[in-house]
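User: Assemble these into one structure.

Assistant: Restating your components, then the assembled model:
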Amino acid sequence: MAVTVSPERDTVATPIQRALKEGFYAGAISLGLFVLFIGLKTGQNMSNELVVTTRWGLLAAVVIATAVGRFLYVAYGQPFMASQKITNVATGLLPASVASRFFQLPWFVAAVVVALLLFVFNSSLAGWVGAEPAGYLQFLRALAIIYVLACVIYYFRAFIHANFTRLGITALVLYPILVVAVLSLNAWSITGGLQGSLKWVDNFGIQILIYVMLAWGLNIVVGLAGLLDLGYVAFYALGAYAYALLATQYGLSFWILLPAAGAMAALWGVLLGFPVLRLRGDYLAIVTLAFGEIIRLVLINWREVTNGSAGISGIPKVSFFGLMSFNVSDPNYIAKVLGIAQSGAYYKIFLYYLILGLCLLTAFVTIRLRRLPVGRAWEALREDEIACRSLGINTTTTKLTAFATGAMFGGFAGSFFAARQGFVSPESFVFLESAIILAIVVLGGMGSLVGIAVAAMVMIGGTEALRELDFLKEIFGPDFTPELYRMLLFGMAMVIVMLWKPRGFVGSREPTAFLKERRAVSGSFTKEGHG
Amino acid sequence: MNANSIQKANPGMNDAILQVQHLSMKFGGLVAIGDLSFAAKRGEITALIGPNGAGKTTVFNCITGFYKPSEGMITLNRNDGSSFLLERLPNHEIPARAKVARTFQNIRLFSGMTLLENLLVAQHNKLMKASGYTILGLFGFSGYRKASAESIELARHWLEKADLIDRADDPAGDLPYGAQRRLEIARAMCTGPELLCLDEPAAGLNPKESAALNELLIDIKNTSGASILLIEHDMSVVMQISDHVVVLEYGRKISDGSPQSVRTDPRVIAAYLGVDDEEVETVLTEVGDEDVIEQLDIGPDAAHGPGTSSSYLAGPVSDTVGHSEGERVTVSKGASKAAQVDAKANLPRKPSERATAKSTGKASTAKPRGGRK
């Protein structure tokens, strides 16, 4: 091989030298950052005095970990990735890429075997090896399952990519059935399976789908029309309280109140829209933020109607279109009508399909609206408002319809939330909720329904999954509660995703009409809107 | 209506699609347009030209409703006989009802949408009606599907005219500059305008693209029945395609007529075609007498307010308009070249003013000619 002379050889240090330097800098920066965060801890002693405890060991561990991590990345990680790129380009022979080397059949088989063995002998593990190693084995099992799933996704990535929507909807429809089936097999009784499915259907399924619906609703305002709305939770609250109050006071059915709550939220969307539509960008964001807070404060302080911070409880359950009820005491209780065993899981499964239906309705309406002139006008508004006005588009009504439509879906989701919880209080509608919904929209890729659904699954499902990581207590001690760290992980995940995909999971945009072929528009051309 | 009464008063002006009368636009103390009147004839290409900062785009913004003029009246007479006072219509109703479409100096396309979508957005109002203001369209009524297919046909028609049909499914932001200009014109035409206002359509185009643009504009004029009002710096475009030229300088009209007459107007030559301060004097020395040159030198001192003949000598707009705060803003003496030419032309007709000017000048700043470089 010919010797290539690099003109930069004199000026550029070798990777090891550079890595040493960068590792040192990284250690110094982390020392500066963490010396007060981690190095010192303040607390109170018995006589209420402030005590400072030092944690130099922990600080040293963090700083050394940072420095070593940076050293390894610069010394070995970067050259490795660069050489991968060069061999890919130079040979064109498709060398074993990192991913295909990582996902290999023998390892896949091994992971399946390990996961199965550990799953089958789960209950007897603690007896064989003791409590602590059993925790590590559970961790290993989780890793094996993740590896197997990643392998499957990697090898079928083309198929998954091509049929993502269909696969996704099928998976969502089958999800409760699969959960009940798997858990019934595991517990060897259907009642046990139903009981065990409560957590999976309610905490994961329904919770995620509520956020999917909210994010899809906000997507109309933020993703399509480009109006930054930081107070979206206000419409969610309006829908929830509309259902809670009208159902408890007047005993109206959910099926009447669902559209009523949506209409109520839409009306407030228009009322909010009128004064703020003159504002753009940051100013609009601040006013909508204030609107969200005003609604929450009204809910807290208007005690005669909303019962203040105590909230409204005893909100009636949704009935199965009036035919069957989910209240055990009712004569038409579902188990009595169908002659099956009593279980709370029926209601949860019903609610799951209800919110799935509402989500699909939202998606259907959004897709339809995008192809109608009003949807195109929303996107045009995001791209350039002045050009819109020069084409005779009434920007005021266009913005108002975006606000109203987004608010309406927020209201639907709110009334569903009230029916599911049976209790609403202003605590459920804090600014953090708005921020999470907006983060889901941004993370998913503004305007993309699929990307937003994936983002909701990652963010909400991820934080819920942290509650399941009990084995971490084996590592970090019994006081360790992983769910306390969810906001930290949440933030870290967002930073990583935004660095890796600045336009969100799905950055491109599907055109709404085409002459010859539908080609996705790259995210570098679309604008975010200026409010 | 008000507009109709104007028509009765000036029946001869009925062939004018756009009449601008006594239009003024002030931004605080700055007068961007002062008492401008002109008319654009139906079926013609009218060009609005002038040096940078002459107020051309401000005139456009007044016509298309982006600015509300301080004074004056802008009347648009549609082909069906109805008239609109554009300064009274809300911004978005000017394209929708008065059928005036415009393009922008700095291109404003929906860059993240495809070419086809850009042209469909332009047909918004028509499609809104067809979709029953979204409600019927949402449920998939056939009326909307038909209208939608028609709108795609119209878009295809204009894409072909603008020679962009091959790129119909590409994002607009991906187009080269010249194609973006053509797309913006095609988008404006999709609104079905009767008056098309183009703000520097040839800016930044190479000669080949510029020639293609000329063809497109002539074609629009001949086949679509739209009249065109355009702002342009590229004289090859203006002289080749326009039927009528209006020249602005410092917000005032300094010339109005056929391209030929404008081209030979000494005021236009002085104002528009880039004559330096020094050269103005040379030009004037060549064409005028010593008196004129002396006039130029001895204009009223800005600090002492304009003299009686100041309107002929200093900037015609700014020094005659009072600020709200009572102060006066003046354009530096000799800034308006056209005014200097005017001064020469007007002097023989107005000896009294000439005398006043002379005496003021003598009293204040008279300076021997030889002192000039």
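Chain B has three domains: 1-99+192-267, 111-190, 275-366.
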